[in-house]
Design goal:
- The chain has 439 residues and is an alpha/beta fold.
- The chain has 17 helices and 15 strands.
- α5 links the parallel β5 and β6.
- α4 runs parallel beside α5 and α6 runs parallel beside α10.
Length: 439
């Protein structure tokens, strides 16, 4: 990181806030430019900078991105825009010699992925993918145990991820519900976990099979279950007033400023009916993955659960390791959100939060429970803050390493999700190399 870095943030929705706020606390970083089609959202981020006593950033529309890089003397670009648009900013930034940090997923399809990988190879510029789950201290503890051979060679993994009806529903209110923009939950969210398992195992995925369905959200399912209320978007709709699945933007200052007040600029609605039309992503997915080490993973994602969290079980030649994280035991209906970031999840503790537990069960011995420091439910288990310190302050882990993710790491996680999507459509196993060839 340059001693005095000049940063541009592309995309100024809620996902960008952790970067804007984090940079505002760092004297060696100046947010010199913001780039977004919506000036109201850029103004919101400039207010965050001004409140921290930092200079306001110059605002640019997307068609001014090339000018921005040179006019503002940018050396670092942070990309947090719509997933399908990441490559449109990553590639020119790399070619301009900038360091790039991109939100996950790195992109949404094989062609865009290839463009990014080629640009990294040709320019030698640095690209990091913001897989903040790698920086969660609990996940890092699992990594250390596996790498030191606590259960021998890992032969299989089972990963169950449960999104509750508050967080899970959120992906069906906004642009993520359209697969051509987000790649679906296999790309946008499960990529978190596909990367974690690649990192935990030190392995590369080779083949993927899966079955996916839209079984809970969407008009037809809502009418079948009786959950559907008759409205297009929640704001201003009497039918949404008693809908526990509705998001009321006017109740939250951050959401109102970022989205409701900004609708006049681009017409984007952040509060659509989760039981409406036009949803093209799945909400229940089962996936099998085979790795180059010979290990396999069974993975299941449910986006409509009454509780939120995940269970990961590793089976090895010397025993078993079990991780359970309970992020929310249950959710009340009509819970008002405390922050715009919390609406997306991960930056504020969920109501009725639980805890984390890691058990190591060796063969022929009693199990032992690993000591976990006080579990932090905010910022993805503390991963967000640690990721910023690693990427922008040069902090290292206790063992002197950094769990940063490269473009290849981003491509491997993406390819797993893309192969799963392809398997959903084709009904047969899909080889990773047939999706995108990654050196």
């Amino acid at each position: 990181m340059p001693t005095n870095a000049r940063v541009a943030i592309v995309g100024t929705g809620s996902r960008a806030q952790q970067f804007t706020e984090g940079f505002a606390e760092r004297a060696h970083i100046e947010v010199a430019a913001l780039c977004d089609p919506n000036p109201v959202r850029m103004a919101h981020h400039n207010q965050l900078l001004a409140a921290a006593g930092r200079p306001r950033a110059r605002a640019y529309a997307p068609d001014g991105f090339a000018e921005l890089l040179h006019a503002e003397r940018i050396d670092t670009v942070v990309v947090t825009t719509v997933d399908a648009l990441h490559d449109a900013y990553i590639v020119p930034a790399l070619r301009a010699g900038c360091r790039v940090v991109t939100e996950k997923p790195m992109t949404t399809d094989a062609e865009r992925c290839r463009r990014i990988l080629d640009a990294v190879t040709e320019t030698g510029s640095d690209l990091s993918v913001a897989f903040n789950y790698r920086f969660n201290p609990v996940h890092e503890l699992v990594h250390r145990e596996l790498r030191r051979g606590a259960i021998g060679d890992v032969l299989s993994v089972h990963f169950e991820w449960l999104l509750d009806v508050r967080h899970g529903a959120d992906y069906f209110r906004r642009w993520h519900r359209e697969k051509d923009k987000s790649g679906g939950l296999m790309v946008h969210k499960a990529g978190h976990h596909f990367d974690l398992v690649n990192w935990w195992l030190g392995a590369r995925p080779e083949q993927v099979f899966g079955i996916g369905q839209l079984g809970f959200y969407g008009r037809e399912n809502g009418e079948r279950t009786g959950y559907r209320r008759d409205y297009e978007r929640a704001h201003g709709s009497p039918a949404a007033a008693d809908d526990p699945f509705a998001l009321h933007l006017e109740d939250n200052e951050g959401l109102r400023t970022l989205y409701l007040d900004a609708e006049g600029e681009d017409g984007y609605h952040r509060d659509r009916n989760v039981f409406g039309d036009g949803i093209t992503i799945e909400d229940d997915m089962a996936v099998l993955v085979r790795y180059d080490t010979g290990a396999s993973m069974s993975y299941h994602l449910t986006a409509y659960s009454p509780w939120e969290g995940y269970r990961v079980m590793f089976n090895g030649t010397g025993g078993r390791l079990e991780l359970e994280v309970e992020e929310s035991k249950w959710q009340r209906p009509h819970t008002k959100l405390t922050s715009a970031k919390g609406a997306v999840h991960g930056d504020t503790a969920l109501d009725n939060a639980g805890g984390a537990r890691i058990l190591v069960r060796p063969l022929w011995e009693p199990h032992r429970e690993l000591e976990i420091p006080e579990f932090d439910h905010t910022g993805h288990g503390g991963g967000d803050a640690r990721m910023l310190r690693t990427l922008f302050d040069g902090e290292k882990s206790e063992d002197g390493t950094t769990p940063t993710a490269t473009a290849v790491d981003g491509a491997l996680a993406l390819a797993t999700g893309l192969a799963a999507n392809s398997a959903f459509e084709q009904g047969r196993p899909v080889n990773i190399d047939d999706v995108v060839r990654i050196k």
